[in-house]
Every structure is written in structure tokens, then in C-alpha cells.
Fold:
Amino acid sequence: MSSESEFVGLGVAVLTVSDTRGPENDTSGDFLTEAATGQGHSVVHRALVPDDIYQIRAVLSQWIVDAGVHTILVTGGTGFSGRDSTPEAVAPLFDKTIEGFGEVFRALSLDEIGSSTIQSRALGGLANRTAIFCMPGSTGACRTAWNGILKDQLDSRHRPCNFVSVLTSS
Structure:
């Protein structure tokens, strides 16, 4: 559902967490970048870090204090494999948790991958008035999160509510 209000473009940062991907094969980061810019947002930062709690936190901490960043899209490190540590790295940075993000992501994902969705630790929250959404590393999962949740919640015209006013009000 959308209203006729004016679109507000956001400053978006994209972080890929992976021990195996590089810039040449970061299809999930590419998808999120293209999806955000295609909707009219500006990607102001993009990085790729290994699955290491402190490297993830270091990058996110810089972006959280950057007034030009309204939302951060994190892909990777949300599973249960040995080094998957995105939730442990990110959750302590939240001022408020967006419980519904992970819940809705898993509900949408259930139709696509069945019960395997329980192995996704997708999560979202707010830190210093910056929205952070963490999703699995597969491009399909990023597509599910973007199309099913993020494109509307990051669109100022979406009703009855969206995150834009929370992220852009002073």
C-alpha cells in the first residue's frame, strides 16, 4: 500500500560478511546495491569484511555515527556455521531491536526453502537512529528480504508506516 507523498531517498551502506567472497563475486552485495539505487536511494558506503565480530563492529560503528547513513544492509554470517557471527557482532550495537524483521523474513522464507528457514538468524535494529538489517549471505535471501520487507519499509510513501521518518527526523 502506498500513498502519494514524496519519495525520500536514504543514504544506504552495504556490508558483506564473508570469509570466501571477494569484490569480484559478491553477488549479494551487488544485488542490495542495485536494489537500493534502483529505488532511488544512494549507496554511500560499501565494504566486505571477514566473518569476525570485531571487524564487523568496527565498520558498523563508523557507519552508525555517519550522519549520511540512514540504513545499513548486512549480508552474510547469520547462519550456524563455525564462524557465523553477524548476530553476535551486531545485536550489542542496537538501541532498539526490530523483532519483526527476522520474524517476517523467516515467514517469507518458509515458502521458498521450507523448514531450513529456522537456520536463519536474520535480525534488525536501530542504532543511533540508523536502521540495520542483517540477512543471510545468499542472493536469494537478500532478494526475499528486499522485495518482501525492505523496499517498502525504506519507502517514505509506504503506508500505514515505514522507517523513513524515524531515520530522517532531527
